[in-house]
Design a protein that fits this description.
By secondary structure, this protein is mainly α. Helix content is 59%, strand content 8%.
Length: 147
C-alpha cells in the first residue's frame, strides 16, 4: 500500500491542525485526528498548545502503522486488495476504529468477494456515511472506479 498517498488522503479528510484541539466528541486531539492519550507527551497540555509539523507527522505515521497492524491481525483479507482499495479500508479504519469498522459485515463480505458495487452501496448505507458526508462519497467513487 502506498503509505504516502494514504497520508495525503487522510490529511485531506481529517485536516492538519498545528495545535491541540477538541474533536467533535470533545476529546483532546492534535494534528491529523490523533487522539491524545496518557502515552503522548502532549497529555495534560491545554487546548491551543502549538504542535510542530514533525510531531504531527510522527503521530500520523504511528497511527497509520497501528491501523495497518490491526487490519493485518483482524482482517487479513485486506492485503489481497489492490492499492486503492487497501487505502479505502485503511482510511475507514482510521476514521471509525476497527471495532466500528468490523460491524460493517455486508461491506466486509462484499470486499472479500470483490463485489465493489455492493461494497460501495454498503458504505453509503450507514450512519458513518451521513456523518462524514463528502469523505464517504469520495471513498465510494474510488471504490467503483478503481482510482
Amino acid at each position: 500500500m502506498d503509505k504516502d498517498q494514504l497520508m495525503k488522503e487522510l490529511i485531506g479528510d481529517e485536516g492538519f491542525e498545528y495545535e491541540i484541539y477538541l474533536d467533535h466528541l470533545g476529546y483532546e486531539t492534535l494534528g491529523v485526528g490523533h487522539l491524545i492519550t496518557k502515552k503522548d507527551e502532549e497529555y495534560g497540555k491545554p487546548v491551543g498548545t502549538p504542535i510542530s509539523e514533525d510531531r504531527i507527522k510522527e503521530c500520523l505515521d504511528n497511527d497509520i502503522n497501528i491501523v495497518c497492524q490491526e487490519l493485518d491481525m483482524k482482517e487479513p483479507w485486506w492485503r489481497s486488495l489492490d492499492d486503492n482499495r487497501q487505502r479505502i479500508v485503511a482510511n475507514m479504519c482510521f476514521n471509525l476504529g476497527h471495532p466500528r469498522l468490523s460491524k460493517f459485515k455486508n461491506f466486509i463480505h462484499a470486499m472479500q468477494v470483490s463485489n465493489w458495487e455492493l461494497a460501495a452501496e454498503e458504505m453509503m448505507d450507514s450512519k458513518w456515511a451521513t456523518q462524514v458526508g463528502d469523505r464517504a462519497k469520495r471513498l465510494r467513487d474510488r471504490m467503483l472506479h478503481d482510482v
